[in-house]
Amino acid sequence: MKKLALGTARLAALMTVMTACSKLLGFVREMVLANYFGAGTVTDAYVMAQSIPNNLMAAMISAVGTSFMPGFSAKLEKDGKKAADLFTSQLVNLQLLIVAAVVLFGCLFARPLVSVFAPGFSADTAALTVWYLRFAFFILFFSVLTYIFGAWLNYKGIFLPQTVYAVCANLVLIAVVIVSAKSDRRLLILGPVAAAAVSGIPHLLKARKEGFVYSPEVSLNRDVREVASLAVPVFIGGYVNQINLAIDRILASGLAEGRVSALNYANQLVTAITALSVTIFVTILYPRLNMAFVQKDNERLSYLADRGIRLIWILMVPASLGLICYSRDIIRVLFERGAFEAQATGLTSSALAFYAPGLAFLSLNTLITKIYYSMHDTKTAVKCSALSVLLNIVLNLMLVGPMGHAGLALATSISHMANTALLCFTFRRRYPSVKLISSFRTPVLVLVLSVLAVGASRLLYKALGSGLLKLALCCGLAALIYLALLRLFRFEDIGLLKQLVKGKKEG
C-alpha cells in the first residue's frame, strides 16, 4: 500500500511538472502571438475562427469522451477486451463520420457562419476569419481521437504521455506563429490544426501500443446508444456553455477592434492557472470519488469532497485576489512587447481583473460537477449550469453597454458564483448523507487571511515601484505571509494536498 501511495505521489508530481511545462509554453505561445500580432484584426479573426467549430461540435465530442469511460469499463468487465475494443472503435468511427459532415458543412458555409457568430467584424476581419475557419474545422477530427483515447489511456492508469503531447502541441503552435509572422498571416491557422494532429494521433498510437485493436466497423448498437444516453445531459450542459461563449464573442465583436483578443488573452491566463492546479488534482481525485460511491462509502465520499473543496478554496482565493490587484502588472510583464502595446495591456488587464473574482468559483464548479458525475448524476449539474448560463447572458446584455468587454468578463465571474451556489444548495437537498462542506469557518477565514497577505504585498509594491523583479518579490512575500498566517491559525489544511495525493485518510 505504501508503494502504491508513493507511486501515486510521484505520478502527481510528474504530471504537475509536465503540465507546468505545457502551460509555460502556453504562456510563451500567447506572448509570441501578442508580440507579433498584438490585439487586433489578425488575433480577433484567429480566436473567432477557432471558437466557431467549438461552438458547433466541441460539446458533443467532450460529452462522449466524458461518458466513454463508464461504458468502456462495463463492456470490458462483462464481455472482455475484444468486445471493449470493438465498442471503442464503433464509437470513434461514428463520431468521425458526424465530424466529417460538420467539416463539409463548415467549409461550404464559412462565410454565413462568420456573419452569424461575428456580425460586428469589419470586412477585412470577417474575410480573414472565413479563411481561417475553413481550416479550423479540421481540428475536430483530432479532437475525437484526443478525448476518446485520452479517456482510454486514463482508464488504463496512463496519464503522463498526454501531458507530453500537450507540450509538443504548444511547441508546434509557437513555431507556426513565428513562421506566419515572418511570411504570411494566413498561415497562422495551420498552427492549431497541426497542434491538434500532434496531440490526437499520438493518443491513438499510444493506445494501440498498449493493446488497443482498431476495427473499421460502424454501429449504433445498444452499447453505443447507452453511452449516447449518458452523454446527452453532459452534452446539453457543454452546449449551453458553448452558446454562452458564442454570445460573449458576438457581443465583443460589435465593440472596438481588439476586444475579442483581450478577452481571449485574459481567459487563457485564468484557464492556465486552473489547469496547473485544480485540473491535475481533480483528475487524480475523480477515480477515488467513483470508487467511494460504488462501495457506498458515504463517509469516504464526504471526506474527499470536503477536503477537495477546502483545498481548492485555500489555493484559489489568494490567487484571485492577486490577479485583481496585479492584473495590469501581470499583463504588462507577460505580453507588452512588439505589436502588443500599452492600449492592448489596458484592455486585457481590465478583462483579467473582472475574470479573476470568478476563478475560485470556476475551480469549485469543476470539482463539484465531478462529484455529481461520480454519483452517476449528470442531469443535476447540467441544470445548474444552464441556469447560471442564462444569468450570464442576461448580465452580458446589461453590462456590455456601460462596461464594454470588461462587463462580459464580470458577467462570467458572477455566473460562476451563482453556479457554485446552485450546485451546493441542490447537492445538500438531494444527497443529505454526503457533506460537501463540513464547516464554513475555513472559507471565511481564508478570505480574511488572503486579503491581509495580498494587501500587505500590494502596499510594498506601491512603495517599491513597478518592475518584473519587484513584482516577483511582492508576490513571493504575499505567499510567505499567507502561509505564515495559515500556520498561525493552525490550519490542518496545509497538509491536505499531500494526504489526498497519497490516498491517506484522517483518523
How would you explain this protein's 3D organization?
This protein has 507 residues and is an all-alpha fold. The chain has 2 domains: 226 residues, no CATH class; 250 residues, no CATH class. The chain is built from 18 helices and no strands. The longest helix has 39 residues. The N terminus and C terminus are likely disordered.
Structure characteristics:
507 residues; mainly alpha; 84% helix; disordered C terminus
Please give the structural blueprint.
Elements: H1 2-37, H2 41-79, H3 81-108, H4 110-117, H5 123-136, H6 139-155, H7 160-182, H8 190-209, H9 222-253, H10 259-294, H11 298-335, H12 342-355, H13 359-374, H14 379-403, H15 405-430, H16 441-464, H17 468-488, H18 496-502
Helix pairs in contact: 1-7, 1-10, 2-3, 2-5, 2-6, 2-9, 2-10, 3-6, 4-5, 6-8, 7-8, 9-14, 10-11, 10-12, 10-13, 11-12, 11-13, 11-16, 11-17, 12-15, 13-15, 14-15, 16-17
Number of helices: 18
In terms of DSSP E residues, the strand content is under 5%
Question: What's the alpha carbon Rg, rounded to whole Å?
Answer: 23 Å
Beginning-to-end CA distance, first to last residue:
17 Å
The pLDDT mean sits at 83
Main sheet, how many strands, which sense, barrel? none
Measured as a percent range, the helix fraction is: over 70%
SSE pattern, N- to C-terminal:
HHHHHHHHHHHHHHHHHH
Please identify the structural class as seen in this structure: mainly alpha
Number of separate structural domains: 2
Shape: globular
Low-confidence stretches: 1-8, 500-507
Number of strands: 0
